[in-house]
Amino acid sequence: MRSSILIFLTLILFSACSFKQEKISINHYGIDFQTKALETKAKFDSIFIEEPNINRAFNSQAIFYSNKEFQFEEYAKNRWISFPSNIVYTQIVDSFISSNIFANVLKDKKIKSQYRLKTEVFKMYQNFEDDKSYAVLKIKFDLLKDEKIVKSFNFNQKTLCDTNDAYGFVKALNSSFEKSLNSLLKDLSIL
Is residue 138 a contact partner of residue 123, using CB atoms and an 8 Å limit? Predict the structure, then answer.
């Protein structure tokens, strides 16, 4: 009797170990692009870069895609490394520093600055059409001086992805951000 109970308990122990759940590996992606120096000597004194206002629907660590109009889904195994507002903010600040258009790029609003940049991201998702996918980015930059808008820059881009997966989307989105920031900085350098 004892031996049959011992065998039964041993079987339960080994069978319970075989039902372990497999750990799902999640891919984490970032937004990272390059900008170059546009000026050898800064044209303007200072600019305060506000944290971007990203549409709440897209400001999560989920990466979204759409197969149908008005319907969004998120990738199960692919995520942003942080909230897009944090990633985009870091990249905008880095781009402005690299461009050398402003002598001082400020992140502290308590310090008085000559200009202020407001950024709003309306759309940021992957769209599938036919057998292709596109990175959709709609972004607006407002340059302010003395609390008045000096200039607005609007970018509405739909960039073809190399591949129809999350990585293809991230590469195309990075390209879209790079184009929009380089265009913005070029326009600012000729103000």
Answer: yes
